[in-house]
Amino acid sequence: MTLPVALLFLAVVFSTSVLSGVFGMAGGLVLLGFLLAWLPAATAIAVHGVIQLTANASRAWLSRKFIAWRIVGMIACGVLISAALLTLVRYSPSETVVLIVLGLMPVMVWIPKRWFHFDVSRPGHAIMCGIVSGGLTIAVGVSGPTIDIGFIRTQLDRRTVVATKATIQVIAHTLKILFYWQAAMAMDSAQWGWIALAIPFAFLGTRTGNLVLARLTDDGFRYWTRWIVTVVGAYYLVRGLMNLFA
Hints:
Layout: H1 3-23, H2 27-36, H3 41-62, H4 69-88, H5 95-104, H6 123-140, H7 144-151, H8 158-179, H9 181-185, H10 189-213, H11 218-245
Helix pairs in contact: 1-2, 1-3, 1-10, 2-3, 3-8, 3-10, 4-6, 4-8, 5-11, 6-7
């Protein structure tokens, strides 16, 4: 990694952690796109897991009093099921597929409630949300919008949504790192040095985003969540289709 790329990497980690600290998602989508331009898909997903594990763990800790532990437990069961299934089929990621799936994900946050009611406060919905979001976290690196569709339709306030999603993501990203462990170990010590240096940047970004979140209204939180992930998703869809037809 050259020095300019390394410095850009640190800036991206900080800014995407701020974004995730405010909305509980979107930052991970942006970070993964940067990593895919630099690393093979499996390695990028592994590195993404390390950074996002740090960011989500710090976000969960800072908002720990708002975590809905019952929902975390139910969704975690679904995440474990999807991890076991992907391990059994020996799944391996493709960059083009990853980009296209990332691009299509935001469509889910625009589905009218009357068409598709998904509420993680209900046990069956929470477990299914865990299966889908957990599978996507491991398969393509992130699952933000698929988790969000289960939360955005609940009556939970924005702080509970962000804190609970962060805790679930700690579990999912831990499993993702283990799944791609061999790809991660193929990186050299210099690359890992920069990644280690990025960890405090992820924490600082999360802390900054947490302060912004406290000033945001629940309506503003839901409005901007939808639009941000839609714009980011559109970029990835175009990029993935360009790879497909190149």
